[in-house]
């Protein structure tokens, strides 16, 4: 695997770098839960959950929806 550029992305559940260890359990949990961290800046997301969907907002990078 080749890493292109210098940008590091983070796990949206545990907030660790994607390259830091395995995130299998995170991936499974993310099927059921909204994300907690921005994958770009690692800020904590502001998450709003409704019965039908979730919205996760980074103050820097905007909104992610389910
Ligand atoms: Zn993770
Ligand atoms: Zn962000």
Helix amount: 10-25%
What is the chain-wise order of helices and strands? HEEE
- What Rg do the Cα atoms give? 12 Å
Work out the oligomeric state of the chains in this entry.
Answer: single chain
How are the SSEs ordered, and which strands pair?
Elements: H1 24-30, E1 46-49, E2 54-58, E3 62-65
Antiparallel strand pairs: 1-2, 2-3
Features:
66 residues; alpha+beta; three-stranded antiparallel β-sheet; 1 helix; 3 strands; flat; binds zinc ion
Plain-language structure description:
This protein is an alpha+beta fold and 66 residues long. The chain has a domain at 24-65. Helices cover 11% and strands 20% of the residues. Strands 1-2-3 form a three-stranded antiparallel sheet, with no helix packed on it. Strand 1 and strand 2 (54-58) form a beta hairpin. The longest helix is centred in the middle third of the chain and has 7 residues, at 24-30. The chain is flat. The N and C termini lie far apart (29 Å). The relative contact order is 0.19. The mean pLDDT is 90. Bound molecules: zinc ion (2 copies). Residues 38, 40-41, 43, 58, 60-61 line the site of one zinc ion (ZN).
In short:
It contains 1 helix and 3 strands; from the N terminus they run αβββ. It is of the alpha+beta class.
